[in-house]
Specification:
The chain is α+β, with helices and mostly antiparallel strands. It has two helices and three strands.
Length: 100
């Protein structure tokens, strides 16, 4: 469910303050735990270290990300693989191709 239009998008004021102190193009990673913060045009060109529950995932913000949340680009669950005979046969083909 989206936030009310009357309230506007949620942007952390501390995060905006950190951005205002940096220059465009700095390679500094801004660490944040605010996954629910909406990406604004001022954030374009900066790299954020978004916490996924275990560590900070670097997210470089581009123009297409404006309007989305920071947490959308830092996944919290890691997909390992499905099991079964079919998976084993596919892995065997890949390892065989690598050896050749």
């Amino acid at each position: 469910m989206s936030r009310s239009l009357k309230k506007g998008p949620y942007v952390d004021p501390k995060l905006l303050k950190k951005i205002s102190n940096l220059k465009q193009g700095d390679k500094v990673i801004i660490k944040t735990w605010r996954r629910n913060c909406t990406i604004t045009p001022e954030m374009v060109g900066f790299t954020f270290g978004v916490h996924n529950g275990k560590n900070h995932i670097p997210v470089f913000v581009i123009e297409n990300m404006v309007g989305h949340k920071l947490g959308e680009f830092s996944l919290t669950k890691k997909f390992i693989k499905h099991g079964g005979k079919m998976q084993k046969s596919q892995e065997a083909k890949v390892t065989e191709a690598v050896r050749k």
